[in-house]
Each structure stands twice: as structure tokens, then as C-alpha cells.
Specification:
The complex is a heterodimer. Chain A is of the alpha+beta class. In chain A, 39% of the residues lie in helices and 20% in strands. In chain A, the strands form 3 sheets. Chain A has a 4-stranded antiparallel β-sheet with strand order 1-2-5-8, sandwiched between helices. The chains are: A alpha+beta, B alpha/beta.
């Protein structure tokens, strides 16, 4: 059951340019490297990718050191606390590339290790690029520190549970968690991005 | 009061609207579970229900949507209190019904998610049991975005209660569920499971549901429910509001009612006012029930396949009869081979895949379930469950995601009394073989008589004849020259009974040379006689030629587009030179050309011994690309493609090595350790090891230490490779190494993965740390070379 303050950002495959540096890093090639295998894997990926993002904008309470208070969870993390310094609000959001990507990867895992590896790298880079795109859309006109995700530094993965619950991520994005707090669809990212003040102020 | 199942056949009926959004306006804090109010603020919940009844709703949903035992320890209390609130509000009212509401578990089911199908059934079953005898009039399974979870919930409801079951799913703007099913697929599955009403709710506003309602009208024989959102949320003057108001909403509901929906209500953002106006505007409209449909169809988790005059191809390749490699794969539990056969048939144009894993020496039920789950992760085609074991059939129908095709029932009492109840319960298209107590009748009339008997008997179980596809059996003409003629005549007689037909066409040529010639000609004749489905080999060019030509000649291929596309691809394939003159096996492996590597290997096998091909051609080529990778002159995908080509060459060579000379001693057990689901690194190592000729026992991911130990012991394998990507699962790796050392000190462990380094590997007692896949291969080679010397 969805709260009425959750909003969505959708994008088509064409809207998102996959970050070349990120892709090169994951493939273990030099930036800008391209070949027929990468191009054909990219085409297959783009046929199934389904970018979706759900977000809320919420107040945060940083009155106690190293404690980040949200109306739905309290996070003990010095790294996030530092990241949010000077913020009174934050965006909490989750993005995914959709379950079709998991199915494509499962299929490629059977028929071609090379295609599987390349497509997995492309999908990871695509998820990260879309996350950057969504963050860019959210922070228009605002000053925001870099987004911060569960799993970074001392921000425990267990906060995925209240965070995804609050975003109705299962209903809106199809994201579910396993007992190790890992998400399915596998190419999904959750993040918190503080809001300092209006840019024009 | 009338039963709700009678009322929905007589008149338009109304659900209530949003719960969560209304409760938030009554003070429920954002992020707090609304169901807690069943115990703490029951008067507010009763008031919510009363408001909806007063607005004209006939059915109210209990405030139990998100309750299950995974989320709430006191789920029983919450459910019982929720039903009590609803019952209190319904008290003394006419035509006022209480729907016990069940939503998604919040977990994705296997094969892509962690929750097993039976665990999901059990979760819902506990809810249904908690709700028993509390006064609900029906069960509503709603807001489901996954067909598999929907099936689990419906089975739980049906197996633990006699209440009517209504189901609504969440479709997105493209008209599909989050996990891919379209309305036709959902309708096929849900009608098969015998729910009482079905439809859609949430996510979309009524405007966008108008784009989908036509699909329900076209395919559903059941009353259709429509419970839309009040559009999309947006911020106006700092307040969040949904963008469709009550008046506009109710106008759209008029169009939805005219479009075929007969049970109307609302979801997120809608209030009693939305329902009041909807009732006002739609109660004046004429009420008609949807006409009964006569389609024959089966479905997967994405789409339905309709069996009609446009021929349907059922891929026969996953059936061990006469297939040595598949038999080996089944005996060794090599799912990868089976899956690749499934994917290849999907790519070759099959519409449905037959799955038969019956071998006397294996556990058929276990293998069938593993195959169905794994195939449904890699192919979206409906499956034909092909078994003579009734227990296997039931378990397979249960775990299948969609409406399966069942192969088969026959005209014997034993078969009918076992198979028909399963189709009655789980739903399914049903292949009916014309075999009676005295075997297969020799005449067409005799076979048609058995078909009639099965149709009549199925009707006693409430199975409509549209579900039945009769197979009049093709028997080889090598033993009876009349058999083709009899079968073709039987097809015509059986079509006249009003059912569809299917044939395992390949049997016709058994025992003859050039089988494709006879089989494809017979297939053409059978199509002319009215055959609907053929169980056939989609890799046979002769069969596919007939299929495409028949469709083009009989008006099933508009503009001959499919035929042109098929014929052009065939022509291009014939023109392409098989191999380049300057190419060698070595160069094919280095370049990663898999098919050509096999061609060159087979050529070399005419003049060179198998072992010389391995030592002088395959290994040097692999070393060359491996060296280039280590020097960063080649990247990982190139190495993997080379490894793939080398593995194919190895396979070709292995066929020529006499059994007594084959070397299976170079084996490695590989696993991603317990708690970790990342297997890409482990898979890369596997491919490379196999390309170097190692036997790999791949245990997959999230593997408990005991399973790894047992595998090493069973195969007397002294080398174990372990992978982990997350810091949290390194302790599990340490535990595995400890167990292996305790079991057999001579077992060596190799570890790798993003979180490891030499220091960490030393700390957990590993014998070797592999920085990359090539590193691991080199160690494995060194290990076995040392063992030999």
C-alpha cells in the first residue's frame, strides 16, 4: 500500500547514456574501447532494460552525533552523518533496471560466458548511470552532497529493509531483499542524498 | 443474503476504495503499517468501512493487505481483528460483503528470488487459516505484480478454505505485470486455477486502465474487477494529491464498465466520494455478463500461446528417447545442457517446449522440478509437462509458473482417474492420447471413439473440451504401411468433435533412412488434414520449411513476412563460406570462433591423434590468449570466447578418445560459498578450467560447507575452488576450508573473489589465492602436474 508522498522517475533506454569510464572499469578495458561483442550485448540489454526510480523527500534530524534520524528509520553511521552535514532534508530513493535484465543474464550464463560477463558489466554500469541521472533530476535547483548508499563505509546493508519498505519498492519497482540484504533485480541501487539549501539562497 | 458468486453474475457490484491513503488522512503516520490500527484504533477502521458501505460499496477489503508471518509475529491477531472490524461495519446491511484481503509477501520467488514456491504457499496458507471462521465472505488476492506469487496465493486460498477467490494484479503502462505477464497469460492461469473473478488494481489510474480493459473483455470468461488509483501523485502547493478527482474518476469508470468491467472500485488515493460517484454514474448502465470464450491456450509467466489453425510447434528436444547426450546430462544432473537445448529451441522458433526427463535410473520427480524451475528462468515459452508418472505430474503442475500443457491423459481408467483431477485443480491444456484399455485402435473411428470418451469424462470434472488437444498417434509406417493414412483420417474425425489436435510427428519415420524427408512430408499432410500442434524437432530445416511454407500458403502469414525473413536467413547461411582458407584450429581458438574451431578439430582428427590435438593445438592456443590477457593485451571477454571455442574443440576430441584412455582425474570442485549469490567470477574460472580439459563439479552459489565437502569426498577430488564477493561471506569461506581440512588434509583449496587478497587467504587457511582466473588455472595445472610426478 503506497504512501501518497512517493514519486517516480522513469526513463527510456535512450535517455540514459552508459558511463564509459564505469563500463571500462568493469570490463577491464581502456576507456572508450568498443567491439562487436560489446555492441551486440548492449543491443540485447537495451531491448529488456526497464529503468524505474521511486523517491521521497523527507526531513532529517542530525541533532545527535553520528545518528541520522528519518521519520521512518534511525541510522547509526558516522560516514552518512558526515555526508549529510548541514542538511535538513534528504531524498531517499531506489533505482532498478528491471527483472528482464536478470532473466537475460540467466540466459546468457547458460549459452555464453563471454556475453554474460560483458552484459553483466554493461548492466551494472547502466544501473549506476541511471542512478546518477535520477540524482541529477532530483537535485535541480538544490545543493546536495554526493549520494550515499547502504554498504558504503559504515552504513549497514540492514537499512535496506526500512528504506525499501518506505519506498514501497516491492510494489513500485519490483525490488525484493534476500536474507543477506541483497536486492533482486540484481542491478538495483538504493541511495540517500541530502539537501543543503536552495541554490539561489 | 445471496452468495457473492451469484450476485456478480446478476448485477454490477462495487468494491471500496483506498485504505492506506485514507487512513493517513485520519492520522496514520507515513511509513507506519496501517494494519496495526486493527488492534489499536479499531473504531477508525470500522468508520472507514462504514463510510465506504454508505457510499454504495458492496464489498469492503479487510485492513490486512500487508500482514503475513514474515512481517508480523502477531499476524493472526491482526487478521482476526481486521476481519472483526469489517464484519462489524457490514452488520445489518443488505448486499454487504467482507473480502479478506491478501497482498504480496514482499519477496520474489525462485528461480530469480530467494523464496521457494512452497514457502510462499505456506505463508499465504497461514493467513488463510488465521482468517478461517472469522466471517469473511470471500478472499481477495490483490496488488500482485508477479504471476508465480499469485499462483501460490490462489493455491493457498483454495487448499485451506471454501471461500470464493477474487484476484487482481498490477499492470504497468505497457499492460504487463512487473515480472512480465500480460492479461491473456494471467487470465489463462487464473481461469485454470478456477478463481471466481479477476482483474486489475493499483499503479494505474482509470484512464490508463482503459488501454488494457479490452484485453480482459477479449480473453476472460469470468467477471472482471477494476480497482484503479486516483491517477498519479503530484505536489500542489506543498501538499501531495492524486491528479484525478472523484468526478473525472467516475467518468472513466463508466467507460471501463462499458468496456467489460463488472466489479468496480478504487485503490490508492480514492475515497468514499470516488465510490459514491462511480456507483451513481454506472448503476444506470445496462449490465451484461462477459460471453464464455472458447480459446484453447496455455501460458508461461509472460504470455499465452493459443492453439488454433495457425500451427503450433512443440519442441521435442528435451526428451531422452534416442538422445545419448541428453541421457548423459540427466544422469549427471547437468542442467546446463538441458537449458541450452531449451534456449536453442526457443531461438529456432518453437512455441512450446516439451519436457520429458524420464529415465529409469534417476529420480524423475526431482529432475522434472529442477528442469521446470531452471527452464522458466531462461525461456519464456510455455512448457509441456511430459511424464507417465502421476506423482511427478502433480508436483510439476504445481510448481509451474503459468498454465502448462499436460502430456498426457489416455482413455484408460487408470490414466483418467489420476490425470483429470489434476487438470481440474491446477488448470492446463491437456494432450489426450487415443489409447484405450486394449491399446491403440487400428482404425480412425476407433481412435475418435476414445477421444470422445476422454472428452465426456473430462466434462464430469468440469474440464471444458476447449482444454483438450487430442493426439491420434503417429506410428511408424515401416511396420504398418497404413498407419499414416489412419492417423490423418483420425485427425479429421477428431476435429469434427470440436477439439484441437496434436501429433508427435517424428514417430512416423522411425526405422527408415532419411527420416526428415518422410517426417516433413507427413507433417505437411497432417496440417492439410487439420493438425494444430506438432511435437517436432525445430532444428530440422525440412520441418521448418514445411511450417513456414504452410503458413504462407494458408493465410497465416500476412504479406509472407515471416516466410521471407526465414527464407532470407536460410539463403544467407548457405552462402557463407564454412571456414576461411588461412584459418587454423589455433587461430580459431585465439579469435574465439567456436563453430569453426569444431570444424577444424574434426578435420584434424582425420590425420592426428586426439591427444596430439590437445597438446599441440588447443593448449598452445589457450596459452597464447591467456598470456595476452595476463599482459593486458587481451581483455576478459576475449579470453572467455577463446575458452568457449577451446571447450567445444575439446568436446569434439573427447568423442574420439577411447574410454580407457580418457583422463577424468584432473577434477576441480567449484562453489560460491554459503550466503553469497555472486557467481560471475566462479563461472569464469569454470569456463577456463574446462577449456584446459579439467572436469569441473560446479555446485553453484550459496553452497553450504557440508555440500562442498560431500562433493569432494564423493568424487575423490583433491582440489576445491571457493569464491566470495562480499566481506560478510568470507567467514563462511573460512568455515568451508576448516571442514575440508578436517575431512581430508590432502584436499587443497583455491580461493578468489573481489574481497580477498593474499593476506586474507593466508588468514583463513587457503592453500592458494588466485588474483584472476588464469592464475587459478595455472595453479590447478601445477597441482595436478605435481601429483603426477
Amino acid at each position: 500500500m503506497k504512501s501518497s508522498d512517493i514519486f517516480m522517475i522513469n526513463a527510456s533506454a535512450d535517455d540514459i547514456e552508459i558511463n564509459r569510464g564505469e563500463l571500462a572499469l568493469r570490463l577491464g578495458v581502456s576507456r572508450g574501447y568498443d567491439d562487436e561483442l560489446i555492441r551486440s550485448c548492449k543491443k540485447k540489454l537495451m531491448d529488456v532494460i526497464d529503468y524505474k526510480c521511486a523517491y521521497i523527500r523527507t526531513d532529517i534530524d542530525l541533532s545527535e552525533e553520528n545518528i541520522c534520524g528519518f521519520d521512518f528509520m534511525t541510522i547509526d553511521s558516522s560516514a552518512l552523518y558526515k555526508n549529510l552535514a548541514g542538511c535538513s532534508e534528504a531524498f531517499v530513493f531506489a533505482v532498478t533496471t528491471g527483472i528482464g535484465v536478470d532473466r537475460l543474464l540467466a540466459r546468457l550464463n547458460v549459452i555464453s560466458p563471454a556475453e554474460h560477463f560483458v552484459t553483466d558489466a554493461l548492466a551494472s554500469a547502466a544501473a549506476d548511470s541511471f542512478c546518477g541521472y535520477a540524482a541529477g533530476q532530483l537535485k535541480q535547483g538544490l545543493v546536495c552532497p554526493p549520494r550515499f548508499s547502504p554498504g558504503y563505509a559504515d552504513l549497514s546493508l540492514r537499512f535496506q529493509v526500512p528504506l525499501l519498505d518506505r519506498l514501497d519498492a516491492h510494489g513500485l519497482l519490483g525490488i525484493t531483499l534476500d536474507s543477506a540484504y541483497l536486492m533482486t533485480p540484481v542491478k538495483s541501487i538504493t541511495a540517500i542524498m541530502g539537501i543543503k539549501n536552495e541554490k539561489n539562497n | 443474503m445471496k452468495k457473492i458468486t451469484d450476485l456478480i453474475k446478476e448485477k454490477r457490484v462495487y468494491f471500496d476504495g483506498g485504505t492506506g491513503t485514507v487512513l493517513q488522512s485520519m492520522g496514520l503516520p507515513a511509513g507506519q503499517a496501517p494494519e496495526l490500527w486493527n488492534l489499536t484504533e479499531p473504531e477508525k477502521i470500522i468508520s472507514l468501512h462504514n463510510n465506504y458501505f454508505d457510499a454504495g460499496a458492496n464489498i469492503i477489503k479487510t485492513n490486512t493487505f500487508g500482514v503475513n508471518r514474515l512481517k508480523f509475529d502477531n499476524y493472526r491477531e491482526l487478521i482476526q481483528a481486521g476481519i472483526k472490524c469489517a464484519r462489524t461495519a457490514a452488520q445489518g446491511r443488505e448486499e454487504a460483503y467482507v473480502a479478506f484481503d491478501m497482498g504480496p509477501t514482499g519477496q520474489l520467488l525462485e528461480p530469480l528470488g530467494p523464496l521457494s514456491f512452497e514457502d510462499a504457499v505456506s505463508l499465504y496458507a497461514d493467513n488463510v487459516k488465521a482468517a478461517a471462521n472469522c466471517g469473511a465472505d470471500l478472499i481477495l488476492i490483490e496488488t500482485m505484480n508477479d504471476s508465480y506469487e499469485t499462483k501460490a496465493a490462489v493455491l493457498a486460498a483454495k487448499e485451506n478454505s471454501d471461500l470464493p477467490v477474487f484476484v487482481t494484479n498490477v499492470y504497468d503502462g505497457s499492460g504487463k505485470l512487473m515480472t512480465g505477464a500480460d492479461p491473456a497469460a494471467m487470465i489463462a492461469m487464473l481461469e485454470g486455477l478456477r478463481v471466481d473473478a479477476l482483474g486489475m488494481n493499483c499503479s494505474l489510474g482509470p484512464d490508463l486502465m482503459l488501454n488494457i480493459i479490452g484485453e480482459f473483455k477479449k480473453y476472460s470468461s469470468l467477471p472482471v474487477i477494476v480497482n484503479p488509483n486516483a491517477g498519479l501523485p503530484e505536489v500542489v502547493d506543498g501538499e501531495t494529491v492524486f491528479n484525478i478527482g472523484a468526478d473525472e474518476f467516475s467518468d472513466y469508470m463508466v467507460s471501463l464498465a462499458e468496456g467489460g468491467a463488472s466489479i468496480l472500485g478504487g485503490c490508492c488515493g480514492t475515497t468514499p466520494e470516488f465510490i459514491r460517484r462511480t456507483v451513481e454514474k454506472t448503476s444506470r448502465l445496462d449490465y451484461t455478463v462477459l460471453e464464455k470464450k472458447h480459446f484453447t491456450c496455455v501460458s508461461s509467466y509472460t504470455h499465452a500461446v493459443f492453439v488454433d489453425d495457425d500451427p503450433v510447434l512443440i519442441g521435442e528436444r528435451i526428451n531422452p528417447t534416442g538422445k545419448k547426450k541428453l541421457k548423459e546430462a540427466l544422469r549427471s544432473g547437468d542442467l546446463n545442457y538441458i537449458l541450452s537445448e531449451g534456449i536453442r529451441q526457443t531461438d529456432a522458433g518453437a512455441h512450446i517446449l516439451d519436457v520429458n526427463v524420464g529415465l529409469p535410473e534417476i529420480d524423475e520427480t526431482d529432475m522434472m522440478l529442477r528442469c521446470i524451475k531452471a527452464l522458466q528462468a531462461v525461456s519464456d515459452l510455455p512448457l509441456q509437462i511430459d511424464t507417465t508418472n502421476f506423482d511427478t505430474l502433480e508436483k510439476a503442475m504445481r510448481v509451474y509458473n503459468g498454465k502448462p500443457l499436460v502430456n498426457s491423459v489416455n482413455g484408460t481408467e487408470e490414466s483418467m482417474e489420476h490425470v483429470l483431477p489434476l487438470v481440474q485443480k491446477y488448470g492446463g491444456g491437456l494432450i489426450a492420447l487415443t489409447i484405450g484399455e486394449d491399446g491403440i485402435p487400428e482404425t480412425a473411428e476407433g481412435r475418435a471413439a476414445i477421444a470422445k470418451k476422454i472428452i465426456d469424462r473430462a466434462a464430469e470434472y468440469g474440464i471444458d473440451k476447449r482444454e483438450i488437444i487430442v493426439d491420434p498417434l503417429a506410428l511408424t509406417i515401416s511396420s504398418n504401411p497404413e498407419s499414416a493414412v489412419v492417423t490423418l483420417e483420425a485427425i479429421k474425425l477428431i476435429r469434427a468433435l470440436g477439439v484441437k489436435t496434436s501429433l508427435g510427428v517424428s514417430n512416423i519415420s522411425f526405422g527408415l533412412p532419411q527420416r526428415d524427408l518422410i517426417t516433413s512430408t507427413f507433417y505437411s499432410n497432417a496440417l492439410q488434414s487439420g493438425l494444430n500442434c506438432a511435437i517436432m524437432n525445430p532444428f530440422s530445416q525440412a520441418m521448418m520449411n514445411v511450417y513456414y511454407a504452410y503458413r504462407a500458403l494458408n493465410g497465416f502469414d500476412t504479406g509472407c513476412m515471416d516466410y521471407i525473413s526465414y527464407a532470407s536467413a536460410e539463403a544467407a547461411a548457405q552462402k557463407a563460406p564454412a571456414v576461411q582458407a588461412e584459418e587454423t584450429l589455433h587461430s580459431c581458438i585465439v579469435k574465439g570462433l567456436k563453430d569453426n574451431a569444431v570444424i577444424h578439430t574434426e578435420k584434424l582428427l582425420d590425420t592426428i591423434s586426439p591427444l596430439d590435438i590437445i597438446n599441440d593445438h588447443i593448449i598452445p592456443a589457450l596459452n597464447e590468449i591467456g598470456g595476452a590477457f595476463e599482459q593486458k593485451k587481451a581483455y576478459l571477454p576475449q579470453l572467455l570466447m577463446s575458452a568457449d571455442a577451446a571447450s567445444s574443440a575439446f568436446e569434439a576430441v573427447k568423442k574420439r578418445i577411447p574410454a580407457e584412455q580418457s583422463d577424468s582425474s584432473r577434477a576441480v570442485v567449484l562453489a560460491t560459498v554459503k550466503g553469497d549469490i555472486h557467481d560471475i567470477g566462479k563461472n569464469i574460472v569454470k569456463v577456463l578450467l574446462e577449456s584446459y580439459g579439467f572436469t569441473v563439479y560446479d555446485l553453484g552459489r550459496d553452497v553450504p560447507p557440508e555440500v562442498i565437502r560431500d562433493c569432494a569426498v564423493e568424487h575423490n577430488c583433491k582440489l576445491v575452488g571457493l569464491s566470495a564477493l562480499m566481506t560478510t561471506t568470507v567467514p563462511s569461506m573460512a568455515e568451508t576450508i576448516k571442514l575440508l581440512n578436517e575431512t581430508d588434509k590432502s584436499i587443497k583449496t583455491m580461493v578468489g573473489g573481489a574481497v580477498l587478497n593474499q593476506e586474507y587467504a593466508d588468514m583463513i587457511g587457503a592453500d592458494f589465492y588466485g588474483a584472476d582466473a588464469m592464475d587459478t588455472v595455472r595453479y590447478a595445472e601445477q597441482f595436478y602436474n605435481t601429483c603426477r610426478s
